[in-house]
Amino acid sequence: MTQKDVEDMFSRFGHIINSRVLVDQATGTTGASRGVAFIRFDKRAEAEEAVKTLNGQKPPGAAEPITVKFAANPNQVKNTQIISQLYHNQSRRFGGPVHHQAQRFR
């Protein structure tokens, strides 16, 4: 699928902020899709509806159903690791737990 195909499929769920289709650089086939795309909607509810509606569906012309889910946020993983390190280091240094509040990103 091209980026336009992906945007056309997802645009009915809301305003797309940006999209990206990953391409295979290693094969030498310029622009060959790796079968992975990222869509960022304006509102979380729009993304949730797209996941609910499209996950497991087979787009026209596709051989297999697609998986639609929320992408892992690398910053969240990194922040969780840092918070975990701080928690354990602070506990040892001060003898008590450190309270922290997780941030939510849209």
From TrEMBL:
GO terms for cellular component: ribonucleoprotein complex. The keyword Lipoprotein does not apply. Keywords: Repeat, RNA-binding. Coiled coil: none annotated. InterPro entries: Hud_Sxl_RNA (IPR002343), Nucleotide-bd_a/b_plait_sf (IPR012677), RBD_domain_sf (IPR035979), RRM_dom (IPR000504). This is ELAV-like protein 1. PANTHER family: EUKARYOTIC TRANSLATION INITIATION FACTOR 3 SUBUNIT G. It comes from the Eukaryota. The keyword Repeat applies. One of its GO terms (molecular function) is RNA binding. Residues 1-73 form the RRM domain.
